[in-house]
Amino acid sequence: MRNYDLKEDIREYWSRRSATFDLAFGHRIPPGPELDAWAAAVREAIGPAPQKVLELACGTGEVTNVLLSLGHEVTALDFSEAMLGVARAKHDGNTRARFILADAERTMEPDQTYDAVICRHLVWTLTEPEQAFADWFRVLKPGGKLLVFDGDWTKPTPIGRIASLAVRVIERFIGHDPYYDGAMSERHANIMTRLPFSGGLTPEGLKPLVAAAGFAEVRFPSHRPIAVAQRRNADLRNRLRTRFYRRFVLTASRPEDGATAGPHLNTLPQPEGISS
Ligand SMILES: C[S@@+](CC[C@H](N)C(=O)[O-])C[C@H]1O[C@@H](n2cnc3c(N)ncnc32)[C@H](O)[C@@H]1O
């Protein structure tokens, strides 16, 4: 018996990666086309600034930077002190940013406080997704927006398999990239097997869970503009990496008071353009 649970393992894993996280392709959001693409996706999903935004699992503060660049007032949380330290240093002195050490699944933030709740690459690693979505619904004001950027990191797409083979060939010549996601590392793989989304996180699987928490208007805008922007300044290996996994964007809203919440409001078309 060990007094050490899955969440502790997850926290320790990310804490260990905090110092080099930004060096792994796909994490840092460089100014230029990529920052513009992320900013456009946020603007499209939540509307114009200024808004009160809760950013969950902010990591090193890269999405925080997108939100601040748009003019929002951001509360950014993470449960890793080490990650939060990097984010705090990056945005030191910015009076529109507040950083807190907290669990994204139980934020402890007051009810109906935020205009938008946003996260990138968190949902796949939730240990209690239903609890988390209920909490995010609770902290949103009526009419508030949920915006999720995520992907199925458990298995490459058919094109991703070919791309990953090509990367392996390239790495025979130029060597292994020590910073790229530890997707294949033993520790990461072990955590993966114990997660609720161990079988993969898909838009189809996520939609009913989000709707069950009371969210309406669950939609899947295209992730493609972000992937295209990432490819613009990337070398061949990183361009191939943008093809590995099925990534997607989810948007949803908390119904206005008086509107009936629940899955039946969720009368939207099938997800389209969800992979990149
Ligand atoms: C893949 S990183 C993503 C970081 C950031 N969102 C980004 O996209 O650059 C995952 C982050 O989620 C955080 N995290 C995972 N589970 C969490 C939880 N339950 N509460 C708060 N943070 C969590 C980790 O500490 C880590 O910083």
From TrEMBL:
The keyword Methyltransferase applies. Gene3D superfamilies: Vaccinia Virus protein VP39 (3.40.50.150). Keywords: Methyltransferase, Transferase, Ubiquinone. It comes from the Bacteria. One of its GO terms (biological process) is methylation. Residues 54-148 form the Methyltransferase type domain. Pfam families: Methyltransf_11 (PF08241). SUPFAM superfamilies: S-adenosyl-L-methionine-dependent methyltransferases (SSF53335). Residues 267-276 have a biased composition (Polar residues). InterPro entries: Methyltransf_11, SAM-dependent_MTases_sf. This is Ubiquinone/menaquinone biosynthesis C-methylase UbiE. The lineage of its organism: Bacteria, Pseudomonadati, Pseudomonadota, Alphaproteobacteria, Hyphomicrobiales.
